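Methyltransferase type 11 domain-containing protein: structure, please.
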Amino acid sequence: MLVQHHPHPASAPPASDAPGRARDWAEIQERMLVPLYEAVYQHLEVGTGTRLLGLGCGSGLALLMAAARGARVTGVDTDHARVALARERLLPQTDGRGSHRRGETRLLHGGPAEAADPTRPAYNLITAFQPIGCTAGDSDGLAPALAAAVPLAERRSAVVLAGWGPPERCATSAVLRVAGRLTERLRTGTTWRPALRDDLEEVASRAGLRPDGSGRVACPFGYADMDSAVRGLFSTGLFDPAVAASDQATVEKEVVEALHPHVRPDGTVWMPNVFRYLVARTP
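Here you go.
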């Protein structure tokens, strides 16, 4: 059976449309990392005794899953629109007896400094689930953020970092190369690069953390159709440098072409990927 190619580039919200971009992230893309969240929480036995600080919490899905296990969660993110969606998701929820959990759940705009609260017990788990290792320099701000979060946690607390797996095991790598080709062509912007084996360990070392185990998790990217795939991928922000170097229509057209090999006969888009996580410990 022949695959019907998408006749025109899809139309994703531009970077200037922060609410639209955040909504695409929350409704399409964020769920792709659910297997990663589940694997980490199971590995660390996240539950009622967990006091979690999520760095770059996005629209809050990982926090919601931890809260469902009984954890007390705090999330910080520099994206106003994503934090607003996270608040919609988490703050109205109840504990099953009708009482709101607003006192246990905090969602804050900013970085680790905003999560400091001397009236609350120290955190015993810090997560940084935004995967690194697909663009040059994408880990530059992570080590300082982790270092700033360490004083807010108990000694020997777990800190989780996530990264892309080897390109040969990540079908999405071929699509991400589109951004690299366009930015390299104009010698500007952030370029794609393959994940390196020790990316996570190097970040942990720079933050003063000690590695204490790792794992790999299959996280396929599956989309209902080409439009959803383009909107979901653009919501990550990974194509923004390419758009800045050319224009959104050009980048979308090339992304659609790169996605064609992953379109199945029913029109869905499916890309197998493997992600890696590292568990480190605070001093």
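Notes: The CA atoms of residues 52 and 73 lie 5 Å apart.
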